[in-house]
From TrEMBL:
Coiled-coil regions listed in the entry: none
Protein EC: 2.7.1.-
Pathway assigned in UniProt: Carbohydrate degradation; glycolysis; D-glyceraldehyde 3-phosphate and glycerone phosphate from D-glucose: step 1/4
Gene name in the database record: HK2_2
ATP-binding listed as a keyword: yes
SUPFAM superfamilies in UniProt: Actin-like ATPase domain
Protein name: Phosphotransferase
Source domain of life: Eukaryota
The protein's enzyme class: transferase
Family (UniProt): Belongs to the hexokinase family.
Keyword Ribonucleoprotein: no
InterPro entries to which the protein is assigned, alphabetical: ATPase_NBD, Hexokinase, Hexokinase_C
Keyword field: ATP-binding, Glycolysis, Kinase, Nucleotide-binding, Transferase
Domain Hexokinase C-terminal, chain residue ranges per copy: 1-70
Length: 77
């Protein structure tokens, strides 16, 4: 995840990137520490990116992707 968001930042030629990523799955939702470990790992590995993880209540990967796209679109308006 860190490599992907940092690549997006580089491709857009930004000094800093703020981005929302939709997530889905039992590991993210139910593991007592996974979401925090993911956030911290991305923060350390992609320090020029501010990543917000948005859990999907849809129950599918498509739902997570849709949420991320809608949030991004709203941020650009």
């Amino acid at each position: 995840m860190a490599a992907v968001v940092d690549k997006i930042r580089e491709d857009r030629r930004l000094d800093r990137l703020s981005i929302t990523v939709g997530v889905d799955g039992a590991l993210y939702k139910l593991h007592p520490h996974f979401s925090q470990v993911l956030k911290e790992t991305v923060r350390v590995m992609a320090p020029q990116c501010d990543v917000t993880f948005l859990p999907s209540e849809e129950g599918s990967g498509k739902g997570a992707a849709l949420i991320a796209a809608v949030v991004r679109h709203r941020q650009e308006i």
